[in-house]
Write a structure and sequence with these properties.
The protein has 84 residues and is mostly helical. It has one domain (14-83). Helix content is 68%, strand content 0%. The protein has helices spanning 14-25, 32-62, 70-83.
Length: 84
Amino acid sequence: MAAKTVQVNVRLEEELATELDELVVEGVYNTRTEAVKDAIKRLLRERIAERIRAKMERVRAASPTAPVSLTRIVEEAHEEEDEL
């Protein structure tokens, strides 16, 4: 089943609209809508990633033994799973 959609009207500066159209003409996106949806998704992913980084920094600040990266956290979780 397809997700329900809503229409959102957006006003853009002419230069930005031209650049958006160039992405469509170049075949990067099939439509303006596709390009705008991708931009919004990227923005939301970026915000989520920033929140995760901020939480990790708080953990690091509170614990001198906290892992230095999310990758290391995942690696440690996998190592623990392997020991089971």
